[in-house]
Amino acid sequence: MTPHRRAAVVALALALGVRPPLPLAAQVPSRFSGGLGVQGLHVLTEVGPQVQRLSGTMLGGEGRLRFGPVRIHAEYWQGTVDPDSGAATSRDVVEGQLLLGVRPWAWLTLRVGPHARAYVTPAGTQRWLMWETQIRLEPVLVPGRVHGYLDVWRVAGASVNVPEAFSDGAGGAAGMVVQLARSPLWGRLGYGIERIRLGGGRSESVDRLTLTVGIGRP
Fold it and tell me: In this predicted model, what pLDDT tens digit does every residue of 65-117 receive, in sequence order?
């Protein structure tokens, strides 16, 4: 097989999510998995004594790529949150995340990367860009079938186009991933919460319940 044909076979195998036969498999150490999902999102904004509570639904997806111990994780979500009460304005929400990680052990991954979020209202767009450092624990509950996960992260720095300066932020998430027997399909159910504090007594809390269905090895 010529080098050009070998490269074409590798590209096709990766696109289809199929492991190529040996010895070609030894030349392709990466593995991809991805899925589509829905989120129930709750946003709590506090500016001094003023409190705004909004909730809504987000649609989006996630993808993961592995190169040996290196992991690349990406997510994209968009939707709308509406006020639960009071005079708050509905917001369109667009959110994305890109994390680069290393997995020294099967149950531990260390990740870092940007997390961007935009709130769009008739009055303008509020943009958040946060740089996060994260630890992920992945205990095996049923070998080859079910594993849990626990994410804990800190916001190392953030840029927000509001008058108040970034102070600190942190968050966490936990859930379960189920791989169907003899199938590349998997499902994930998880809950996460984060809190960002700015100067002047301003804070932003976001919590979400996520259901994702995907293909590949999560």
Answer: 999 899 999 999 999 999 997 777 899 999 999 999 999 999 999 999 999 99
Question: pLDDT-based confidence at 30, cuts 50/70/90?
Answer: low
Q: Which residues pair with 39 in a beta bridge?
A: 58, 210
The confidence score (pLDDT) of residue 170 equals 98
Exposed, middle or buried by CB within 10 Å (0-12, 13-18, 19+), for 5? exposed
Strand partners of residue 82: 55
Q: At residue 86, what are phi and psi to the nearest 5 degrees?
A: 80, -165
- Evaluate the omega torsion of the peptide bond into residue 122 and state whether it is cis, within 30 degrees of 0: no
- Rounded to whole angstroms, the Cα distance separating 176 from 168 reads 28
pTM of the model: 0.82
CA dihedral of 39, 205, 54, 126, whole degrees rounded to 10 = -100
Report in angstroms the alpha-carbon separations of 5 from 1, 2, 11, 23, 108: 6, 5, 10, 15, 37
Contact call for residues 113 and 132 (beta carbons, < 8 A): yes
Residues 108 and 172: their CA atoms lie apart, in Å, by: 15
Question: Phi then psi for 39, rounded to 5 degrees?
Answer: -125, 140
Question: What is the distance between the alpha carbons of residues 88 and 45, in angstroms, rounded to a whole number?
Answer: 10
Q: Whole-angstrom Cα distance, residue 59 to residue 79?
A: 6
